[in-house]
Amino acid sequence: VEIAARLRELLGPDAVLTEADVIAPYLTDYRGNYRGAAAAVVQPDQTASVSKLLAWCNEHRIPVVPHGGNTSYCGGATPSEDGKSIVLSLHKLNRIRQVDSANFAIVAEAGCTLATVQTAATEAARFFPLSLGSEGSCQIGGNLATNAGGTAVLRYGMMRDLTLGIEAVLADGAVYSQLAPLRKDNTGYDLKNLLIGSEGTLGVITAACLRLFPAPRHIATAWLALPSPAAAIALLALLREASADRLSSCELVPRVALELVCTHISQAREPQLAPSPWYALVELSDSHSDAIQGTLTNALATAMQQGLVTDVVIAQSVAQRDNLWLIRESVPEAQRRAGASLKHDLAVPVARIPELLARGTALAEQLVPEGFVIAYGHVGDGNLHFNVNQRQDADAEEFKACEAPLKRVLHDLVAELQGSFSAEHGIGQLKLGELERYASAAKLQAMRQIKQALDPNGILNPGKVLR
Ligand code: MLT
Ligand code: ZN
């Protein structure tokens, strides 16, 4: 009670929430894996207020848990159970400060949803390429804090690649601000890239200057049937070469995922193709030439001759394209509706995807007879969401008991394949132990020293990324 009263004095009465039913949504994660408690939720609308808050919390050693759109898969924005933390919601810091067409840049505050940034760019005849299923609710601050990926990384990179500058509040309340649209800035340590991906453990990002691109005026999208994951890898190379690298997305979807989407997502329409064990959604785009459609058609004809593709649907309208993307982006939701699942966000060098799938599937089938594998995702980036869903008639306890042993063998496998156990979802509180297990001693020591230097009192999102 005393903390809330002090916060109201500091930030104003409207910025502080304490009623149990109002703050409840801030205390649990999207997947329902974690439930925490907090002394208050604060919702400042100015960077200066975030600065005041952190200075005060640092002085009084009060933990602060930054909170964006709450779409983390790793419990990154959920406070601990002891009730001593303050949740810092950034949703009222939601202005687009500037759209700078000449410099191909946009300055957005942390609480803007990703969709808001995409729309602001489009209205200025520019394009912001980060694209995720949760783009209507995830926030730019969270995208930055987790270095989000998504479905256009193949061509445009992850959030880190899309960021020119940031404004952030450090643990003691100091404001670091570099929001100029600079392509080049080799002036010492790169604080921007240190804070991006740090999941709120080194500072709170309050705004960012993001890269924009020429709007893609011509888009060619296809849904393909493929005989195998190896065919997908060969197809990826063929499409990149044939299109002069204008391939923006290459997503792999197994038959079982398509079936789940068609069962659980009523708006989705199954593409009219012969049934196949694997499908791919591919998209080429060009800001200038409409030849892109022909490029795709010719490349797919070659792919069919080579046996890489067995059937093809090319979107003939925006509605058809939207349906193909709806199918792909609904896989996680369809899977959620189908029941419990064990999730793994795996990356390997692209050419090792077939080996990851073959060996990973064999391991999962052996260890989890109560489940079935749904491995799908960003094959063009070497990143698959290797998930195992509970069979309908299976015992929930037995299924859950498989979680730890399955995680171990899959993460050992990606380590052997020189991959990553967290490609784009981060560490949060879910994967602390995995980081300790798989990161080198040199990396962990450097990470701990950086944390100690930037947050000596350990107030910033404690218990996330590092113990
Ligand atoms: C996706 O690509 O759909 C999400 O990152 C992941 C998931 O649900 O596993
Ligand atoms: Zn993904």
What features would you describe in this structure?
With 467 residues, the chain is an alpha+beta fold. Helices cover 36% and strands 21% of the residues. The chain has 17 helices and 19 strands. The chain has helices spanning 2-11, 20-23, 47-60, 114-123, 140-145, 153-156, 191-195, 229-242, 255-264, 292-305, 318-329, 331-338, 353-367, 396-401, 403-416, 432-438, 441-454; strands at 16-17, 40-42, 64-67, 86-89, 96-100, 105-109, 126-127, 163-169, 175-178, 204-211, 213-214, 218-226, 247-254, 278-286, 311-314, 341-342, 345-347, 371-378, 383-390. The strands form 5 sheets. Strands 5-6-10-8-9 form a 5-stranded antiparallel sheet. It has a 4-stranded mixed sheet with strand order 1-2-4-3. Strands 13-14-12-15 form a 4-stranded antiparallel sheet, sandwiched between helices. Strand 8 (163-169) and strand 9 form a beta hairpin. Helix 8 (229-242) crosses helix 10 (292-305), helix 9 (255-264) crosses helix 12 (331-338) and helix 13 runs antiparallel to helix 15 (403-416). It is globular and about 70 Å long. The model has no long low-confidence stretch (mean pLDDT 97). D-malate binds at residues 133, 331-332, 343, 377, 385, 387.
